[in-house]
Amino acid sequence: MMEKFRPNLRQQLSQNSHALGAIAVKLGRNHSVNPEELDLLVVILTENRKFHQQISMYRINHWKVKEVWITLSEWSSELVKGERDVVECLMNGRILYDPYEKIQNQLNDLRTFPTELQQKMMCLEFSRLLQAHVESESYMKEANLLDAHSSVQKVLTHWARLAVVESGTYPRAHLWYQVKSINPGVYKLYRELVWGEESIDQRVHLVMLAVEYTILNRLEYYCSYLMELLASKEESWSINEIHEQLWIKEFHQDVTLIMEELVRRTLVELVMSGEEMKEQRYRWISGIRYEKNQKRC
Q1: Which parts of the sequence belong to the Nucleotidyltransferase-like domain (predicted)?
Q2: For 63, which of 1, 8, 82, 214 is 20 to 30 Å away at the CA?
């Protein structure tokens, strides 16, 4: 059925100067990323922010269609984040319109998974994991066990995604099915957290200890992308300068916690600048070598 109206959609898009490309995904009512029970999702890329998140719903014959516009920058950022909707669209979709090969290039990246993209994703997932871990520590100190349990579930989800990315592939919709074979240890921790017979307190502590000894000690490896950026100049960086550089590279994630952890581990020097209101700046410590491209033990 899609083949019948595909030429018409392509023609409409070619006549729209704001459309950079478009991809269509045949979903089916039981598709894992289809809570709205759509038949077809059409994603249109643009550089005009006025059209960002513009949504249309319509029917073609008996097909229920949703059309979503998104900026190329945001789409690329979502791809770096490994957002499953973007990944599933690229993996399962059909390119409708791609005069500048923007979509085809991203699809190629998805299939070949270049080192730079892998490093970006590992750093981003580590940042999310660290944030959830700090939250869980705070909740445990306050004896808020259910909130700590919820935060630790997030920690394990990011750990699972980190394991998948480290293995050289993208996290997909059925994450724990992927992780079961890639990292059985993380899979077992998740089962214990959810179904274990010990108290909530004991289960949360088990995960937190595992994270401390297994993941946080590999900060340099998982954040090698950020470390390379910091080492690219001898001068100090403000946190805003770091985020500006990361944003240019479609890395849209706050790395303040990582920077504080780098300072705590004496991998980065904290520099105070200014008179009355002193600005915190960060400088790479010359001579420090960071772990890079080392395989997981």
Answers
A1: 2-116
A2: 82
